[in-house]
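Sequence only, no structure available. Ideas?
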Amino acid sequence: MSTGAFALLRARGFLNRPVRPEMPRVANWHAGELLFSARLGDSTNIWKVRIDSSSSRVKDDPQRLTSGTGLDAYPSLTANGHLVFAGLTNSSDVWVLPADTNNAKAVGQPQRVTGTIGPHQFASLSADGRLLAYSSVRYGRPRVWIKNLETGTEMPVSKSTGRECMPHLSADGSLILYTSCDENGASFVVPVQGGTADRICTDCATTYDVSSDNRVVLYRKENTLRAFNLLSRQDTLFMQNAKAKLYQSRFSPDSRWVAFEALRGNASRLYVAAVRDSTTPAREGEWIALTGDEGWADKPRWSPDGNVIYFISNRDGFYCLWAQRLAADSKRPAGPPTSIAHFHGSRLSVGNVGSGSVIEISVARNKIAINLGELTGNIWATNFPH
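Reply:
I predicted one. Tokens follow.
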């Protein structure tokens, strides 16, 4: 029987999100009261709500039991009536994994490269691994930043007062694409060294790529992929499928192939397709499947030589970094996927970042940038208010 608790929470402004560390819904039942952890505004706290014993329905509005500004989770009551809970801090940053990316080998441990107050989301590297673009809310709103990983210097991409999300660097590091987080959802391209932002589209989605010659931008609009020519200003349909939503398109380094994600219901698969005449991809019957039914697969990214696809997958029960080697000529899978980095711990993981839309990976010649969330905290106890 439904208690009506979730409907009440939604009506009172609680965020209705998937179960994740920043929005735990671990509950504890005590003498007609339901203890739970939920997010309201910028904080996640412990709450309780009364349940009527005769109707099994919620009786009153939720009552807040903790007042921390971080992440209070996993409530429980001790035998002597104390409320025990975890007081957690979750920081979302860009980390860089040293790697021999053409040979699908990690050669070191991940290192955090964003250190100011965050969260810091998305990640995009130039092909030489020198420049990193990311989105940060360090000044109260998301803005796109560029960091030189050799010198450590960083600067905002624009002087705009708007909200900027999902940056993407061109391979040569000369252009950066980003999307307005405001209502119109417009996407722009601007020279990294400064200049006027060029609008690509309005009311368009936020996953995109630019060809190796910096002429064609791929972007998603609704469930299709489109191509925008920066020189001719021509916008054309690039790829669509009546039974699948297409996402995460990426040109190969030579722009002769495109990797992408196809979502059918709750199933996500990665594909590669040949690109003919610069902007015409192969038909669906010629798509090359890279993954099957081994769990969720997301964010296909090419190695510099175009013979490896990196991606995020939960095929082992956790969101980890994997690589699929490809035959050089046909781009068909060459053997099974191999694991590059596992994130099975509760402290540092991809799963701690939040929703999949803010998770990103980017591959350069000697490193892989990835969004990871670091979860730390303590156990607290307080008197339980009756």
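The CA atoms of residues 129 and 364 lie 5 Å apart.
Hope that gets you unstuck.
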